[in-house]
Design brief:
alpha+beta, 5 helices, seven-stranded antiparallel sheet, two-stranded parallel sheet
Length: 303
């Protein structure tokens, strides 16, 4: 289903530059900037009187990535020092990527935010392609991810990520399982890491729950055996007592590369009516920092 545009939109929120890092414990959680935009179905309730209070700018610097999906506790690399103690918020190079300005896309006038108090189903009313994470600086588009001109992806193109004997059954599940649209973006960074990001929008969160196509049993083409990403588990386990655990995120990896000398890692993100699928492949080994960084940023855009 394509997104429908209307003429009336509310003012967009301020956006600020973003360059992100990942490296050992989350210090704070700051929301990504929100905006308002044309309405897509279903119709949403009237907007609050002072909608501007719902809009917050995301201020990220060249050194810190925030676990907004976790909501508190630990950031990679910096264990809650005062910002004044870190000149320029600089840290040593840990392989993180630098992303352009991040801002959530506009939502329809009167529509609730995905995490708004009046949106218990966490339905996303923004254009699906606008929720896709942009490519980091220096990356080139990856032709292995096949999209239409508007950024949408056909079911058959998406299923090319799976082992051939898995595709027919999964295609039937998608066709009868409430799928509305798939959007995707792919890029290759100078270190040779190939990243494919897909967002699947369903008619309701219940269909997202039933999808089942992004798990340790996903059976990717060329990487059919996956296990839990233990480094992600370790990060989560080091959160402070009482901190909110990340919801809807699962990270997996190949133990031993099955496709020559390449390794594949998989990130699964579930947010209301949207399922995110992130696949990274690299010769040798997929680097932990940019993989976690990519998952965290995409999670923030969906949240």
């Amino acid at each position: 289903m394509t997104e429908q545009n209307t003429a009336e939109t509310a003012p967009a929120a301020e956006t600020v530059p973003v360059a992100v890092a990942v490296a050992v414990a989350v210090a704070e959680a700051v929301p990504v900037a929100e905006a308002s935009a044309p309405l897509t179905e279903p119709q949403a309730p009237a907007a609050p009187k002072d909608r501007r209070k719902l809009f917050a700018a995301l201020r990220w610097t060249a050194a810190v990535v925030v676990f907004a999906a976790v909501g508190t506790g630990v950031a990679y690399g910096i264990a809650q020092p005062e910002r004044t103690d870190i000149p320029g918020l600089a840290t040593k190079d840990d392989g993180r990527w630098t992303y352009p300005t991040l801002a959530k896309p506009a939502v329809p006038v009167g529509a609730p935010l995905a995490k708004g108090p009046d949106n218990h189903a966490e339905t996303h009313y923004a254009p699906l392609t606008g929720l896709l994470l942009p490519a980091p600086e220096g990356a080139k588009p990856d032709d292995g991810l096949k999209t239409d001109k508007d950024g949408t992806v056909s079911v058959d193109a998406f299923l090319e990520e799976y082992a051939p004997d898995r595709r027919a059954k999964l295609k039937e599940r998608l066709e009868y399982g409430g799928l509305r649209q798939i959007a995707g973006r792919g890029w290759t960074t100078p270190d040779g890491t190939r990243t494919h990001v897909y967002l699947l929008r369903f008619h309701a969160p219940g269909f997202t729950d039933a999808f089942g196509g992004c798990t340790t049993n996903m059976q990717l083409a060329g990487a059919q055996v996956l296990e839990m990403d233990l480094s992600w588990r370790d990060v989560v386990s080091k959160q402070e007592r009482g901190a909110k655990r990340p919801e809807g995120i699962g990270l997996f990896q190949e133990t031993k590369p099955a496709n020559g000398d390449e390794q594949t890692k998989l990130g699964c993100l579930q947010a209301g009516d949207v399922q995110g699928v992130i696949i990274q492949t690299r010769k040798g080994e997929v680097a932990t920092v940019p993989f976690h960084q990519t998952v965290i940023l995409q999670s923030q855009l969906l949240g």
